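Postdoc handover notes: sequence design on the structure in folder B. Input tokens:
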């Protein structure tokens, strides 16, 4: 029986893939920007729930302005953008006359949120724009499809056969059986993408990509679970029926993105 989770996936996944493949790069970047902002807001709400009064609007404004700047300036100037945000966030808190009590936690939370999504959301955009011709499209597609496949394998095989807990103190429902299912579907996803549309990808690079995604995607999921577990919530929000929030849906995808970008640049994408 198809549930709410599957219905949402069947509707929105083809739309997302079509936007990546057929629409101009700027449309993809706008999508990433919007999803990044929504995910960052959910993380800030979790931090505030924990008693860390991270300023919501200034943090989102800073992120919203610097993320496009990162894409425009390019990867070679990313360090300057990150350094700017690292220094700006404490000054924003000071000039905003926020309470001194809890200032360290608030500044730390706001700075971490802005930098984390600049690095991860920035990488999601740079994967599309850092490679010539249509290679950027292929890099984004293999990244998304392999991770979505791995997430599905972990969810469904874990639900059906999961008996041995993977990280019971962080995410009690995740199992080693689900982890194995995720690895299998990630391998299939990388193989499928390379066979169908990404023949330029060298075998060694494809293997390295599979290993990176198979390990990093579950770690990204567990990292987000730490925040949710600490805050005492199951999902980051209820904006996506059957899936939770945008932070729930981007945790694996975003966390692995900087590593995939680096791997593709260092190892190359031509056979």
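Designed sequence:
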């Amino acid at each position: 029986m198809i549930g709410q989770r599957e219905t949402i996936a069947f509707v929105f996944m083809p739309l997302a893939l079509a936007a990546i493949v057929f629409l101009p790069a700027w449309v993809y970047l706008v999508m990433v920007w919007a999803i990044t902002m929504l995910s960052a807001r959910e993380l800030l709400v979790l931090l505030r729930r924990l008693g860390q009064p991270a300023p919501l609007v200034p943090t989102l404004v800073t992120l919203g302005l610097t993320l496009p700047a990162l894409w425009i300036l390019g990867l070679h100037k990313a360090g300057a953008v990150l350094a700017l945000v690292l220094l700006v966030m404490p000054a924003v808190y000071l000039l905003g006359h926020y309470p001194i009590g809890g200032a360290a936690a608030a500044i730390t939370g706001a700075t971490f949120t802005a930098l984390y999504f600049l690095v991860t959301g920035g990488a999601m955009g740079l994967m599309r724009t850092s490679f010539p011709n249509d290679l950027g499209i292929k890099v984004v597609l293999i990244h998304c499809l392999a991770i979505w496949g791995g997430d599905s394998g972990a969810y469904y095989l874990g639900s059906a056969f999961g008996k041995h807990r993977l990280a019971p103190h962080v995410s009690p429902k995740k199992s080693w059986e689900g982890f194995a299912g995720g690895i299998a579907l990630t391998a299939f996803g990388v193989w499928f993408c390379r066979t169908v549309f990404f023949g330029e990808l060298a075998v060694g690079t494809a293997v390295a990509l599979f290993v990176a995604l198979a390990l990093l995607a579950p770690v990204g999921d567990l990292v987000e679970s730490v925040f949710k577990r600490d805050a005492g919530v199951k999902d980051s929000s209820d904006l996506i029926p059957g899936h939770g929030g945008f932070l729930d849906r981007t945790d694996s995808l975003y966390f692995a993105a900087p590593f995939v970008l680096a791997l593709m640049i260092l190892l190359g994408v031509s056979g």
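Context for whoever picks this up: The chain has a mean pLDDT of 86. Don't rerun without checking with the PI first.
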